[in-house]
Design brief:
Length: 1240
Amino acid sequence: MTLDWPGQRPTMLRTFTVLLFCIRLSLGMTSIVMQSQPELWIETNYPQAPWENITLWCKSPSRISSKFLLLKDKTQMTWIRPSSKTFQVSFPLGALTKYNAGLYRCCYWKETGWSEPSKVLELEAPGQLPKPIFWIQAETSPLPGCNVNILCHGWLQDLVFMLFKEGYAEPVDYQIPTGTVAIFSIANMTPESEGVYICRTHIQMLPTLWSEPSNPLKLIVAGLYPKPTLTAYPGPIMAPGESLSLRCQGPIYGMTFALIRLEDLDKSFYRKRPIKNEAYFFFRALKIHDAGHYLCFYYDGSYRGSLLSDILKIWVTDTFPKTWLLAQPSPVVQMGQNVSLWCQGPVDGVGLALYKKGEDKPLQLLDTASTDDDESFFLNNVTYSDAGIYSCLYLLSWKTSIRMTSHNTMELVVVDKPPKPSLSAWPSTVFKLGKAITLQCRVPHPVLEFSLEWEERATFQKFSVDGDFIISNAEGKGTGTYSCSYRIEAHPNIWSYRSEPLRLMGPAGFLTWNYVLNEAIRLSLFMQLVALLLVVLWIRWKCRRLRIREAWLLGTAQGVTMLFIVTVLFCCGLCNGVLTEETEIIMPTPKPELWAETNFPLAPWKNLTLWCRSPSGSTKEFVLLKDGTGWIATRPASEQVRAAFPLGALTQSHTGSYHCHSWEEMAVSEPSEALELVGTDMLPKPVISASPPIRGQKLQIRCKGWLAGMEFVLYKEGVQEPVQQLGAVGREAFFTIQRMEAKDQGNYSCRTHTEKRPFKWSEPSEPLELVIKEMYPKPFFKTWASPVVTPGARVTFNCSTPHQHMSFILYKDGSEIASSDSSWASPGASAAHFLIISVGAGDGGNYSCRYYDFAIWSEPSDPVELVVTEYYPQPTLLAQPGPVVLPGKNVTLRCQGAFPGMRFALLQEGNQVPLQFQSTSGNSADFLLHTVGAEDSGNYSCVYYETTMSNRGSHLSKPIMIWVTGLLPKPSLLAQPGPIVAPGENMTFQCQGELPDSTFVLLKEGTQEPLEQQKPSGYRADFWMPAVRGEDSGIYSCVYYLDSAPFAASNHSDFLEIWVTDKPPKPSLSAWPSTMFKLGKDITLQCRGPLPGVEFVLEHDGEEAPQQFSEDGDFVINNVEGKGIGNYSCSYRLQAYPDIWSEPSDALELVGAAGPAAQECTVGNIVRSSLIVVVVVALGVVLAIEWKKWPRLRTRDSETDGRDQTIALEECNQEGEPGTNTSSPSSVSQETSVELPVPI
């Protein structure tokens, strides 16, 4: 990056430090002081002559340490290892001499090494005070005027601090603090506040003994000029290694421009000289650490600066982060309605494009301005053609090499009826004597009218505008099964699908029968007891009258007594075995949360606002109370189900105890925890709590401080130093005792203080006594059904222990909500059942139980997380690499939610308890199924929920089936009528397995979810696909599995490719051995197609009718009379569809001697032709020479005898016939006599 740094003069550096400080103020950032820096100061027992005996103290800011280090002049070191971990240690120096004068700093040991050193303490010669140091600290952050606190550290206590300004003889301010630091405040800096400041100290009793002046600090006011604009070229999102230019433009010429990256203000402050009224900052090769938030400003020669530009976020990444789509009001839309598709992604300032699967071009575009205004894609008056799978991508207007990753999709479903509503009963689904039940029919969008149906009575129908129906049980006529539906204003003639049925129970129900049976058994026991007393009295009366039959009467009494005992035991066993007492949980309206907020972190009492938030989505308004009686104010609930109560600046009238309530339609919540304001200049009093301590186990002590950004300190009675100290961790902190022992018992309290010095403290909390008591072992705690439930469901908690006759307590989020006393009629193992008849949105949370007997309690049980679903949108669950996996492999199930910071749970069908939990800062979680086996086959789903407000969860995701294959023989897959089907026709897949009563699944390559599954009674499943379309083309397979133990699944069937088309794909045509005819040789044309069971036909150009038909695709072609040459093509038809022919293949040309290719001879043909020509020419020359000899034979002398002629002719014959035998004279003469007439 080509940038210029500011000058290195001390004054300029100090000036830019103040300028950066004001920038930090405008952005609401923390001060420049590092929080890990220790504090160094001086203590002495000679206040008027501190140099006589000096002790240096070093204190860590927020944690205990085992080692401290003192440095002198950067070289000499002294370190101390205290006997136990502590916050501070002392280094005695004694009397100050020239040998121990110098520059001192200290460090403390952290887990990662030595901390940053403290500020430098300069000890000069004896008789002088230490030189103070000067720095600044933030209080509030308006621009152009900053409210500045100037801190002067004098190293000693009880000093007088003086603040001087250049040009003024008298000090502008002075302070006498109780500690070693003085704070000088300059409110709302203006140009008159500019200047050079220093501070000095002196001892109170010796005003003539002054310290050396501190280093000067020059204050410059920023924000006197209009703010500039900051733009990025070519764009704000670039890949590593690419170049980027940031342009800062202002309205004034000749200014100096500066660029800042907010993630590292101290190291990324760059200066650039202008070109007219603008400056360019070049990044020649971007790196990952160059990403961040940038802003710029400009200043003049006196360092008077402008306002800050708007923040520009720069992304440097290889791959775009994913986007996801949300449909409002729902992804299931009725035909004719409107729907908004909201595209979310982490990248700001970039346009978006909406795509639909199957279409290449984007449907809609959103530019940068629209995305900044949170606009969404809008589909108006949807029809069936709008249904499909949608996704959104980033739309860039500049070139970059960033890769586009796969994006999450959203399926839009268009239905002819509105989706079904939900139906619940209040207060429960069981009628009580003289009480009515209100049935509540609910949907998340406006409704014209609701309708209630009763399945037992076809003519029964009620209508309601708000969805509430009151059902009474007069004469037992209210019990039965109910469902509801609704219609909307846009389509008043179309009623929605019916809700899930809801059954109401009354006197004829099972619960009443149990009650009657219990009462009958108790009455029988009472009657038997009365009968026994009567028998005993009768025996005594008889004994007095018939003394001689005492033995018989005694035996009768014993028999009656034994009969009574046996009957009692039988009845008790019947009670214990058949009936279990259930304690109904009367859930109160969820308790709201109360906290405080302020915009003055160093002095919160200057402006305080109380906030109240409810976990229930049905809250209508909030009420704030003071001291339990005074109604302060009432506020309606916002969309976030919270309300603000501004108090302003605290006065004495504000002191007191505050709590809030939330109001719903028919109930008022429990009060929140009490927030106590104890003074006008003190932090709210914190609240301390902890679970009962258990010997040898970890214990967490909770300290709630009400305000965010505070630090927490834990104290123990009898220990002077803090036991633990934690930095700013939110509105509450948890102190941990790793192993609770006897030495840890005692009274504990906590305090809070501001994050920056000078600390402002709260009052100590009320003491918390920790006493280790002997305890029973923890009980067994569970729910009878899954802890992930829908609203209106019935939940029963079971708390049990092997100890007898115990009483049980049920807790929710640490607070007691129900109890169950022991019963003398329940011998054996002790247990209690806590019942929530109809779960509401605020009933979720962490539940646990304990049991006790007199003064001895048990340990708390393991918690059970109760999640109430259907509050947030449904997540998506995907399997990677796929839902079909071999044994021993790993499968990752990714659950993608709609909101970050949630907790995710993975559920498997058949298991009551979720398999895995994950808390993540993002909006997705990956669940790993390691080395899967047959037991891992099954349906999986997931849910996400918030952990802060009653575990409100999302709808369950669509289930995804995981098959662990390879354990059964693979099936066979056939398509009827064939693998090629015309659009609009019906098709059937036949999957044949090896085992009866199996579940068959049809799969398609490229689709994770199975297309269909069946459980036929035989060995084969038929999957019917009506009216197939072009997108049904693809590669299919099937598997089958056992849906009971051992849950085995088969391998994939052989893949079957399906074409949905009017014409089958064209075949290929080739020639063997070549496309050129040879003399007397034939050529075989081979036509090949992608499908079996077809008939091929060969066509020749120039002939109207097809030439040949073949079932194997081989055609033999000869070239008789040159008729085989020309262009050929082939096609085929399915035997099942003889009228549908495929497209013809590409043309193939055959050539021969008469063809245009006959003149193209090979090298061998040329050589042979040349030899033939040479031989013919040679024979012609020989014949010409011999021909010239014949005239000489005719002109010879006539007297030549016949013998010579015979010899001459014989020589000629010998030359003409080389194979003739000439050895016999007789034969010669004979031949001559025969052949002589011929030449003559």
